[in-house]
Every structure is written in C-alpha cells, then in structure tokens.
C-alpha cells in the first residue's frame, strides 16, 4: 500500500474540534484509519461523541474533511413524536427513497462519491459524474451533496420499485463539508434546481399539530406502491430530522434479509417486527387489517428463508445477485477492488456489451448463510 | 451476609479436575461466586470448558458438588441429524415438558431443589419435598434427580397445557452428583418406579434409521395438543441427547415473550423463526400449510406486542402474572428473597387461603418493556 501522507494531527484537531491526544488515540485503535488510495484518505470507521462514523479526511497537502452523514432517528409512532420533537411551527415532509446513500464532493479537482462508511466507491463516482452537473461542484467547493442512488443497476440495494432503467440520483441534503451543517430545505431545493439536479420528492409543509395525519395518508399511499417512507424535517434544518416508513417497505426489507438469514444482524429483524406492532396500534387496526399484517409479516420471514434452504438442498450456492452498468471496464476492476476492501466476497460474470455500455452481473456470496444452511442440511445441530 | 465457610480450593480442584489456579481466577472474576445461604454455597454463574454453568458447591465441612445440567443441543432437521449424531443402533424418545428444570439432591440431611443457575429455590424445595418420596434421597445420597416442574402454580414458566391442578414434577434424568454422569434411560426409569416417582413420558425406542419418521408423527401429535416436544436419547446415555420441538410450542414461546418484547434477548426471537423455516422444509409443506404457518408465526409476534402497547396506553403496568401455592407463609418470604437475589422485581399480593394452603399471586415487573413502551408512547424515538 502506498503509505501516502501522514495525517496532520494538529490541523485535523483544529478543524474537527477534537483534542490532538484523542485523534492519536483513535488512530492507534484504528477507529480513524487510512484507506489505500490516492489522494491520501483517512476515515472514521465508527462515530465518536462529536464526529459521525464515515467522516472522511483527505490530506495531500491541503486537508479537506467531509463529515459523515448523521444517523436519522426513527419515529415508532407519528403522534405524539412529531409534536414532541419539532418545537418549530411547521415540518416539511420529503420522500425517503430506497437505495444507498452517498455523499458527493469535489476533492482537489475531482468529484468523488463517498459511501456511508467513508470509502470512495469507484462505480458510484462514475455515476455521479454522469448524472450531476459538474459545474455545481466547481461553483461550490465547500458543499457536499447527500443523495440516494436508486434503481436496478445499483450494486448495494437494487430495487425495481422506481421507474428507473439503470440508476438515478436524488438529493435529500446539501451540507457544508467540514462542519456537516445542512442548508435549510428550500435553500437546498432552489440551489439544486439551479443546476438541474433532482431532489427527492417534496410532499409538503404541514403544521406540527396536523403533520401526523398528513404523514399517515402519505405513508399509506407510498406503501401501496411499495415505496419506502418519508423524512420529516424542520424547514430550517436546525432540529434534526426523523424518518418513518411503510409496512410494505419494512416487510420487503425482511424478505430480502431472510434470504440471507445468517448474514444479517439479529437487531435488523427485531426492530422491524416492533415497528409493525406500533404502526398497527397507531392506525387502530380492526381484526381484518391486523390479521393481514400478521400474515404478511410471517410470510416475509419464512418464505425467503425456505427458498434459501431449498436452494441449498438442490446444491446451489446462496448469492445476492446484483449488477452494475459501466462505460469502461476499468471501473469494473476498481469496483471489484472496492468490494474486496469492504470484505465482500463476490463473483463477477463476464461483461455483456449493451449499446455503448457494459452490464456486469455480480454474485455476492453470503458465506455465513451458505455455511450454516449447509451444516444443518448435513445433520449438524443449531447450538 | 453470613460470610460462611471459605471455599476449600484444593479439595474442589481435585473433585472437579480443574487446576487450583484456575479456581482462584474464577473466584476473582466472580464466575464462581458465593450465594448468601446456609449451608455455604458457591455456584458457577456460567460454564467453563469442562464445568457446566449452574454447578453448585456446598461446603460446610464436607464438600458436596452438584454438577450443572448440560445444555441439550437442538436438531433443526430430524433427518439426517438423528442418523448423523447417534452412532448407536436405537434411540429412545421421551417427552420434553414445558416448565422449568430443577435438580434435586440431598445435601447434608436436607433435600434441596436447585434452579438451572445453581441457586436453591425455597418454593421448589417445598414442592419437591412434598412430591417426591424422600426415601430415595436417603438411599441414594450420591444421585441427583433432574426433572421438570410443570403446572399453573409454577412461578417461572406457568402453563396450563397439562392436566395438573397446581404443580407436578416429572423426572427426565438421574445423574451422579459430582461427575454429572447420567444413568442409562431404562435404569433411571426403573429406579424411579421403585420409589413411585413419575418420569416424563416414554414414547418408545426406535431404530436410528427410522427414528426421524417416528419423531415426526410424535411431534405432530404433541403439537396438536399444544405440548412442547421431545428429547431423543442414546439408551445408554453415552452420546448426549438432542431436543426437537413442535411449531405450536415455538409460537407459544414467542407469544409469551413478545408481551415483554424488550426484556427478552434478540436471539430468542431469531432462533425460533429459523426453526419454523427448517420444519416447513423438512415437512415439505404445500402452499396451504405454509400459509397457515406464516400467519401463525406473524400472529405470535404481533398480537402479544400490540396487547402490551395498548395496555400501557391505558396506563396499566406490564407484568408477568404468576402464582405460587404454599403450606406456610415462611416460604413466601423466602421466595420473595430468592427473586430479589435473581434480580427480579416483583409485587406479591396478599395470600388467599384455599383449603389448607395459601395462594399468592405475584406480578413480575418487566421494567425494560415498561420503560421502552412508555417512552415511545410519549413520543420518544427508537434510536
């Protein structure tokens, strides 16, 4: 690995407002760790009290910091949570899309796309250079565009619920690089419009008193078409936003995860089941609606797991099948290296040329589910 | 606390075959810890490589050790697991009852009942002194009777699935105190019969080749009447037994646990969901049977949680309601002290005299579920 430049601890300490000794400790414990790439990049593998996980520090000569995207907390009940949380007069409701979130910023003279964890994804970088008007980054070198990459050619969370042929990018936040401070909602939307960059859908602005009723209607509508949910925001973006999702999206997550039941965390399952309980109570469901919700939940858990067990029984490998679509084959190699760095085991199929692009199918191997299922089918015990 | 007698490390080391230095280390880390009672008792709070958690060491003068009950591993599939595991010719199938397991042994001149964790339960001790012929313990001072306490007046796992008015005791294993070595299945049953002590039901002895078919029939029958499952044993008890349970019992556990959704471990839920998947595959279920299983699973998760949320919404406290039935009120006080020692917060209602006994209703407080539900209902976020 190119050893790159040593972290200028003094400068980083001042920029982040974290004592030097703390930075040194984080480096030692590898909470703050170097990533093998040019320009030299250090990333926060997890968050500390004041700094979000995924915060990236670029340091070839001049230091540039891109703060991690803060975790958006979840409402289990719309009422009284919205009222309780938002001491402002109104809230703005925007769509929460189902893809993966990236931060896009210009570092030196290049636009780069950072994943949640603070790694530069070469595939996403290629996509955002095509999809976003690059003049924005020239004009606004101190801003970061935070958005969702959605669509079927998305190698992290592929979804066909949107009318998107390959992938598209929708902005939900614009923030300052070093501080992470967000622009107010309308300022963000206006700025994006000026550059023709798409934002996530804005449902409206509602009084804090009534917002729970409006959001309920929006969520029912989104659920019917299989969409994920909403983010509820203070228009000024001073009070941190909260998220709320549809039961359909919840069950769809479970269906996806239970195919790889031994690879996902146990909290993943538990929290989604609990959400269903609270939504049913809030919506004051009758016997018929509740019964339907229960069956959908049970089916979302068992059917994909049974599919996986049967697949393994037939001797097939359990894989998460995704695809990428690229202009040049160099990006494929870089993306393969990126997956390796993330610890993902994957098989890349030969590129298929489609028009002027290459479609590459990728099978991610869920080793834990493969191993566990194979062991049980061969007569091993659970524990 | 009565400081009791110091542990004779040298003697314990020899009896357990664990080096003295290791015993001293375990004492220091409180893996091996003293319990405030007479006679002086030390217990293994968790297992170490060769010694089971719950192993109890009594030491006033002479040392007596009661080995912890070993964890019985679970089959996720009957075939090929039974065939794989049991290199003997036949297996014996006994019922696994749904209650709590205790070890009963005579220590000095008193018969005591130990819970799984190695604490002496005063209530269970009263019960086993009534229910079991005490001559057995006089005649066999080196044996431990391992059995299940079942029935509605059981303060740990109350169940009304058996035709039992208060509580009853069913033996599944007889073992040697110090070594934990079990008696062979038929020797155990014959010995118990001699003293008129009830054993769990014996379904039969089957060839290892066919056992999975027989157990499937047994499990379907047990499931229909809401009973838990079976333990499959090497008749000689040389190969450790394995357990297998019905879907109904599985769902009943989930129904019970989801009332107190925030107090149970996340693994508790996950492993039960996975069991359902494997059973469905093994039984090669058609669409109708699978749909029914999914709905039952979903209902077992959501209905009890919804009941809890609604209860809290009405301002009621979430409690696990159990009861004990005792001859004297002294046992009630001792049992209250025992629950406190276990860290269980409980409210005891005034005793009701029924015939010559006292019935005492106990409300165990599931603090985590109470707090979490109250917080969410008042508008707090999940995380």
- Rg of chain A over CA atoms, rounded to whole Å, is 22 Å
Low-confidence stretches of chain A: none
Strand content of chain A: 15-25%
Largest interface summary? A-B, 51 and 51 residues
End-to-end CA span of chain A: 41 Å
Mean pLDDT of chain A: 95
Q: Give the number of DSSP strands of chain A.
A: 17
Succession of helices and strands of chain A? HHEEEEEHEEEHHEEHEHEEHHHEHEEEH
Shape, principal axes of CA atoms of chain A: globular
The DSSP helix count of chain A reads 12
Q: Which oligomeric state applies? A: homodimer
Approximate helicity band of chain A: 25-40%
Strand order of the largest sheet of chain A: 5-13-12-6-11
What structural category arises from helix and sheet content of chain A? alpha+beta
- Main sheet of chain A? 5 strands, mixed
Walkthrough of the structure:
Two copies of one chain form a homodimer. In chain A, helix 8 packs antiparallel against helix 9 (266-282) and helix 10 crosses helix 12. Chain A has helices spanning 9-16, 20-28, 81-85, 122-131, 135-139, 185-194, 211-224, 247-258, 266-282, 287-313, 329-341, 367-377; strands at 32-35, 41-44, 56-60, 62-66, 73-74, 90-96, 100-107, 110-114, 143-150, 168-176, 202-207, 229-233, 242-245, 319-326, 346-348, 352-354, 357-365. In chain A, strand 1 and strand 2 form a beta hairpin. The longest helix of chain A has 27 residues, at 287-313. Chain A is built from twelve helices and 17 strands. The mean pLDDT of chain A is 95. With 383 residues, chain A is an alpha+beta fold.
């Amino acid at each position: 690995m190119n050893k790159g430049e040593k972290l200028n601890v003094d400068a980083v300490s001042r920029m982040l407002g974290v004592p030097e000794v703390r930075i040194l400790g984080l480096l030692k414990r590898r909470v703050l760790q170097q990533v093998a790439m040019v320009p030299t990049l250090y990333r926060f593998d997890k968050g500390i009290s004041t700094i979000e996980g995924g915060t990236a520090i670029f340091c070839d000569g001049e230091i540039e910091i891109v703060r991690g995207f803060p975790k958006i907390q979840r409402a289990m009940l719309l009422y009284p949570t919205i009222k309780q949380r938002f001491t402002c007069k109104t809230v703005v409701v925007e769509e929460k899309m189902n893809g993966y979130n990236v931060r896009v910023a210009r570092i030196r003279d290049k636009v780069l796309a950072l994943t949640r964890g603070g790694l530069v994804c070469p595939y996403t970088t290629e996509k955002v250079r095509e999809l976003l008007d690059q003049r924005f980054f020239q004009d606004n070198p101190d801003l970061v565009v935070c958005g969702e990459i959605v669509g079927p050619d998305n190698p992290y969370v592929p979804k066909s619920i949107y009318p998107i042929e390959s992938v598209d990018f929708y902005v939900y936040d614009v923030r300052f690089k070093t501080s992470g401070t967000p622009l107010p909602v309308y300022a963000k939307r206006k700025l994006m419009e000026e550059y023709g960059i798409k934002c996530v859908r804005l449902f409206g602005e509602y009084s804090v008193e009534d917002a729970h009723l409006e959001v309920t209607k929006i969520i029912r509508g989104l659920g019917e078409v299989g969409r994920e949910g909403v983010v509820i925001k203070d228009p000024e973006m001073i009070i941190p936003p909260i998220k709320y999702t549809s039961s359909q999206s919840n069950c769809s997550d479970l269906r996806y995860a239970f195919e790889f039941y031994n690879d996902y965390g146990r909290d993943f399952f538990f929290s989604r089941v609990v959400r269903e309980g609270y939504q049913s109570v809030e919506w004051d469901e009758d016997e018929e609606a509740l019964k339907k919700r229960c069956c959908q939940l049970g089916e979302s858990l068992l059917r994909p797991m049974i599919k996986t067990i049967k697949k393994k029984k037939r001797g097939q490998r359990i894989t998460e099948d995704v695809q990428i679509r690229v202009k040049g084959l160099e990006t494929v190699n870089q993306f393969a290296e990126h997956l390796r760095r993330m610890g993902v085991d994957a098989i890349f199929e030969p590129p298929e040329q489609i028009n002027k692009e290459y479609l590459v199918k990728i099978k991610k191997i869920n080793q834990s589910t493969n191993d566990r299922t194979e062991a049980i089918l061969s007569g091993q015990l659970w524990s």
